[in-house]
Amino acid sequence: MAIKFLPVIEEQMSVGFTGKVNILSPFNHQFLGFLLFKDGQVINTRYQNKEGLRAFYHLGIREYYLEKHQYIVEPEIVNEDEKRIHYPFSVLKTKLDQQIKISEGVEKLRPPQNLRIIVEPQVISKDFECTPEEFKVLGTLTEWNKVEEIYDHCSLLEHEVTNALVTLRKKGALKTIGMK
Questions:
Q1: Last-in-domain residue among 65, 84, 106
Q2: What is the number of structural domains in the chain?
Q3: Do residues 59 and 163 make contact, with C-beta atoms less than 8 angstroms apart?
Q4: Of 89, 106, 123, at which residue does a domain stop?
Q5: pLDDT tens, 12-24?
Q6: In which band, very low, low, confident or very high, does the pLDDT at 180 lie, cut at 50, 70 and 90?
């Protein structure tokens, strides 16, 4: 599948663009985020609740699978201190391809969207060991318990959330409470 924002980036690189390329929903033109450029290089991305490389990868994975977006170019002054991405575009494309392959590998493990999950309090203690990704998912579970909401509100990439949910379930730290 084609990833629509890659040609948009290539076009802005060719003219040495500085400013934002706003990312809009094609359905209602709602603002979803932006790609930030300085002298033709992508220096930051913000998409949904993610920023930097994670946002760039998340946008690419979403476009690869299903979502198409509209892009609006908006020249503006950009400060160097806004830089969160330090890779050249060729490296970003390679890393995005790797993230898409990882995402394809764990997609079959993703739980149903309407499943509700809670933390098993007896398992969680001060001696409970978890990865930083698992910790972020546990933090998200303090506010959200529906799988769809966990994916929407966690700052991790979708395949990272899936892996964390699987390992937490194997550790006995999660309990399913049915479909909503």
A1: 106
A2: 2
A3: no
A4: 106
A5: 999 999 999 999 9
A6: low
- What range does the domain containing 52 cover? 5-106
Per-residue 3-state assignment (H helix, E strand, C coil) for the chain: CCCCHHHHHHHHHHCCCCEEEEEECCCCCCEEEEEEEECCEEEEEEECCEECHHHHHHHHHHHHHCCCCEEEEEECCCCHHHCCCCCCHHHHHHHHHHHHHHHHHHHHHCCCCCEEEEECCCCCCCCCCCCHHHHHHHHHHCCCCEHHHHHHHCCCCHHHHHHHHHHHHHCCCEEEEEEC
Q: Is the pLDDT of residue 107 over 80?
A: yes
- Tell me the whole-structure pTM to 2 decimals: 0.85
Same domain, 153 and 97: no
